[in-house]
Structure formats: structure tokens, C-alpha cells
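Posting this for the archive.
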Amino acid sequence: MKLQLLYSLIIFCLAFVTNTYAVISPEIYWKVKLPNTQIPKVIKDFLSQSEGDIRELKQDKTNTKEKVYYGLHQHGILVYHVATEDEIRDIKKEIPSMNHATIKSDVQDDFLYKPYFLEKDLAKRKVINFPSFKNKNEAPFLSRQFVESIPFSLKKIPEILNHFSIDSSSKNAQTIEETIKFCEELEVKHKEKKSCATSLESMVDFSLSMLGTNNILAITTEVQGETPMLQKYTIEEVHQIGDGDNMVCHKLNYAYAVHFCHVGGRTKTFSVSMIGADGTKVKAISVCHKDTSLWNPMGLPFVVLKVKPGTTPICHFLQDDQIVFIPSKEATYYAIS
């Protein structure tokens, strides 16, 4: 009899926990799944809106608020396709004409800044040009339970646009389609371990499945001050954080927070302290990918650096809304400021 009562109690507890997980907030889900991991500020800042407010905001055709949220740059996802003229033009100084011949012959010169660089460029006292480290994509995180009630598929574009009251002929509609297309193509064309996380819960689950531990360091670039679009920065300190597998999540342009998360093989991760010409202080996260053999050989990194895939590690900075997850056993240095 006692065994039967105990068994019934266990079943009840399991059912309670299961049902509780289905309705708990994204923040609590993080704390349950990653109990030793501090939630980055960039996540906390966008967990504050209630889903009721967001639902009303998006479906109210008279509102003037953002229906799709945009960041300034998405360099972290430009390694999978052939570099476009617009992407190259964005990082180059003014050139009289921009055509395919120019791209092939002169692209190594006249850069306003280089979004990709080599590990040797992470040197103390080195001066670099770089745009704002604040990406300014303010898309809110919604719970998995809520976002799973909304389609996320190219086949359902009309339904998605209708849900968010987005004009099918608008730039926002084009952005919605481009982001979903990017996420769906990832599943087919690329061999990296990757996923588009449409909720904080799915981001947490993917990190656990990819890194194989819940003892994880989650860090982002930190910016003190409002940076202009482009300025000179002087590197003051460089510290290696990790050397091994990590997972990086890049925030995409969408109607709510969607992140492209990927595990790109062996990497080195650095914390880079620098100061801008205007006094802005930045503790930037830089990731150096040791294996670039799966990247598009005509992608922007190789156009900028004039190297071939798989021949040398390629590095890039993360803006403040991009998150790197590192197994704590790999973390060799990091100080919370």
C-alpha cells in the first residue's frame, strides 16, 4: 500500500513539474535549466514587456510602433552566401563606380572598417575603425508557448503578415520573408550545427544539446556610452576567455526576438577592452573561428581578407545583442564589470 502511495505521489509530482514548465516565464526557465549561469543584461532588458501588451501592439493596425525590429549590422551571418555589392559598399569608402570588376580587383583597399580580421590584429595599442558596438535591435523575447502559436514558415507568410498586421508590399514584409528563408535554408545547405531560436527557451535547449553541459558562461559585449556610427578605437587589453567549442547567437531582424545560433567548431574567444575616440569604453567579445572550411569561399570575410576557406582563423567582434555561450571548463578568463 505504501509503495502504491509513493508511486502515485511521484507521478503527481512529475505531472506538476511538466505542467509548470509549460507555463513558467522564459527567465525562470533559464534559471531552472542553467542554474549557474547569469542571464546577460541584453536578455533581461527585453523580457519586461507582457505578451498581452505585445499582442495588442502588433495586431493594432493604427499603432505607430515597430512591427519589425532592425539591428544596425548582421556581420555574423554573412559567411554563408556570396558577398553582395551592397554588403561590400557598406564597408568601403566612396568609390566612383562599384561593379564586379571593381569588387574583384580593388576590394582589398579603401575600407572604412573591416568587420573580419586575423587573430594577430587583436594587439594592445592597435587602433581600429569600427561602427557602433550597440546593435539597437530591440525585439522582445516572447515565451515559447506564445511563439509556437504563430507560424514560422515560408509557406505561412500570408498568415504571419496578417497576424502582425504587416502590409504584404512593405519592407517589413520583405524582412519577415528574408529572415525565415535564411533560417529554412540553414537546415538544408550548411553543415554547421545551427538553429534559429524563436524563444529564449529554445536558445537554452539548443545550448544544452550542443555544449553537453549546463555549466555555461553566457557573455556579451558591454558598452559604456553611446557610440557614433563609426570611430577609431584603441585596444587596451586582450584576454583569452576560451579555446574550444562555443555557441554564438546573433539577433536577426524580425517581429520578435529570433536568434541564429551556431556551433562553428573549434574557436578562440577573447575579451577585448578598448576606448573610442569620444571616450566610449567597450569590453568587446571577439570570436576567432579556427575552421572556416564550411564558409562560402565568396563570402564577405574572404573578400575582405583575401584568404581562402580553411587556411587561417578568421575573427570578428560581437555587438552587444549577440551572445556567446562557453562551457565553463573552457573559460580561462572573464571578469564581470
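The mean pLDDT is 81. The longest strand covers residues 230-245.
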